[in-house]
From TrEMBL:
<protein>
    <recommendedName>
        <fullName>MKRN2 opposite strand protein</fullName>
    </recommendedName>
</protein>
<feature type="domain" description="MKRN2 opposite strand protein-like C-terminal">
    <location>
        <begin position="40"/>
        <end position="204"/>
    </location>
</feature>
<dbReference type="Pfam" id="PF16044">
    <property type="entry name" value="DUF4796_C"/>
</dbReference>
<dbReference type="InterPro" id="IPR032016">
    <property type="entry name" value="MKRN2OS-like"/>
</dbReference>
<dbReference type="InterPro" id="IPR053922">
    <property type="entry name" value="MKRN2OS-like_N"/>
</dbReference>
<dbReference type="Pfam" id="PF22795">
    <property type="entry name" value="DUF4796_N"/>
</dbReference>
<dbReference type="InterPro" id="IPR053921">
    <property type="entry name" value="MKRN2OS-like_C"/>
</dbReference>
<feature type="domain" description="MKRN2 opposite strand protein-like N-terminal">
    <location>
        <begin position="3"/>
        <end position="31"/>
    </location>
</feature>
Length: 214
């Protein structure tokens, strides 16, 4: 899903594009490898596929995806991946990815919705047993049944913070005691960086180049 945004420096400008042109769009000089002050590089893609990041805290827009649908005013949805990369999320439908009968993990149909998300934090595989144990126990609790969901007071964010507190993993669990502090340290830096990439992507959907004076 990476659109492959490229950047090169020329004639005291930064040029962003998806295909390196034959001529500089600023000075019209023909480009070859000897013209560049800095060789072209690919702008780092800030999003990940949740299933490829087990034992993680992940975030995505409530509706749609980041590149095409996200604006600062829109709500975000947060979830947890287990050791297999299944996303466990709390919504108006209750907890997903756990079969209440067998009390085992089951990959749900919404997994594809998490193919473009932000990675807030990921734990080492040494945490597998503890992580899954705490997550499964919480997921089966009546506290997270569908009828308990409240968009303002008992939501996906509430679930993730409760999980992190129960995990008792040091600094991250301490930050989870205070929702505002958690957002300031883990959410805002990621969404701010992603916002710059999103803005650049949308500029390049409208035009072939985006140019910045150095």
């Amino acid at each position: 899903m990476d659109p492959g945004i490229l950047c090169f420096h020329h004639c005291e400008h930064k040029v962003f594009c998806t295909i390196i042109p034959e001529n500089c769009p600023v000075c019209q000089q023909k480009l070859d490898r000897y013209d560049y002050n800095l060789l072209p590089f690919r702008v780092p893609y800030p999003f990940v596929k949740a299933s490829q990041h087990p034992r993680s805290i992940v975030m995505k827009p409530t509706h749609g995806d980041f590149l095409n649908d996200y604006y600062n005013s829109k709500d975000l949805h947060i979830g947890v991946t287990n050791s297999q990369g299944y996303v466990v999320e709390f919504s108006e439908e209750g907890i997903r990815a756990v079969d209440p009968v067998s009390k085992k993990w089951s990959e749900c149909e919404t997994s594809l919705d998490w193919d473009q998300c932000l990675l807030l934090e990921q734990f080492d595989e040494l945490w597998n047993e503890i992580w899954d144990g705490v997550l499964l126990k919480m997921s089966l609790s009546p506290l997270w049944e569908a009828e308990r969901y409240n968009e303002e007071r008992h939501n996906c964010f509430t679930f993730v913070l409760a999980f992190l507190r129960a995990l008792d993993c040091g600094e991250l669990s301490e930050r989870a005691q205070d929702p505002k502090l958690f957002c300031k340290q883990y959410v805002v830096p990621r969404t701010s960086a992603a916002g710059k990439y999103i803005s650049l992507y949308r500029q390049l959907k409208r035009q072939s180049y985006f140019i910045q004076k150095q």
